[in-house]
Queue: 2 jobs
Job 1
Amino acid sequence: MFDVAVIEDPAAAEVTLDPVRSALLAALAEPGSASSLAAAVGLPRQKVNYHLRALEKHGLIELVEERRKGNCTERVLRATASSYVISPAALSAVAPDPAKSPDQLSARWLLALAARLVRELGQLIAGAAAAKQRLATYASDSEITFATAADRAAFAGELQEAVADLVRKYHTENAPNGRKHRFIVAVHPSLKSPENP
């Protein structure tokens, strides 16, 4: 089971948005059968089976084992991932394109970059999994409190200069065995938590 799976197929994305199917996916973090899940979601076993078939058809759940119970065979299933992210590729006709209006100070451009990041990582993860190789990535996540808007602007300026220096130092345009990497740095306000409004 993967920690996170990226859904690119529009039909699979639609299947996960159904509240019952979403609840079944969550319940199937641990293997279960239609019988065991029926009580958890408050539906008859036959109805649960219908939803499980839809999830299985799109590769969101997988068969773990089959058990004989009298004249019946009980299918034990589990989710293929602990959590799922729907790629903007699932809405390709209306997916955001960061190249359309690049603006370093625009929250909507940042969102378009994040959407591209999800789409590209989904494709890279799928390719690496198919090749049974590890995907070379790096990420950093920090939180910083700025005393003033001027401090935030100064930080952004220094960060931009530092990144430009590093890019100049390590970027080799025509390296014979080189591979391009996408580099994104983002700064945005943190969401306010109920404890710290």
Job 2
Amino acid sequence: MEQKKSNGKKGLRVLLLVLGGILLLGLAMGATVLIQQSLRPKRPAATPTPEPTATPEPTPIPDRRYDVLDPSAFTPETEKLGLTEAELDYYGEENFAPGMWIDLTPEGFSGAVIRNIAVGYSYVVLDGAYYRLGEGDDGKGLIDAVLCDLNGDDEEDLLYTYHFGTKEDGETKVGWFDCAEKTNAVSSFGIRNDYLAICEENGAYAVYRCSRAVDAASGAFSLHFTDRIGEMLEQGGTLYLMLQ
């Protein structure tokens, strides 16, 4: 009986030793893992991927306004307008009097650019001479004008848009007046039943479709730029439109 108790105690002691060994082994392995992790270089935190940015909206072109000239500030020399007797009889000389002219002169231009309210006839006034702009009769006449040097001769020129015709036959074209040569060229292309305007952009001259709002009381008007169509080029006195 005592022998059995002795054997039982011995077996329990062996079991405890085995369990203790397993526990010590587990603790040793855990300590090793912790030491290895502490010695391992830390990875940098992941940089979050930036959200895609939206394409910036183009800077809107401000509306352009043209006002009627003060009668006291401008008196046209009727005899220099190049009007025939038939035109004066038909339209009436009073329609070419002071107060019947819109000022479209670009800032910095050495002359003047004018358009008649009643008839639409438009002129460059330079060194006392009047040069007719555009082509055709009727219509709105000059719509817009900007100062430029389109042919690169270091002389000021004018780019302008001009509307002629009536109702469904109305058309707007781009014109170029060479101030050095005193010559006028009108584009072969145009747009029907709509208006065009010019905007200088980093040395280039862009053509825009535009809407036109008229002050019924005075005849003054403003232009609102909408769609960009392309850029104007000149070669050998001919105008070209480079579509965008």
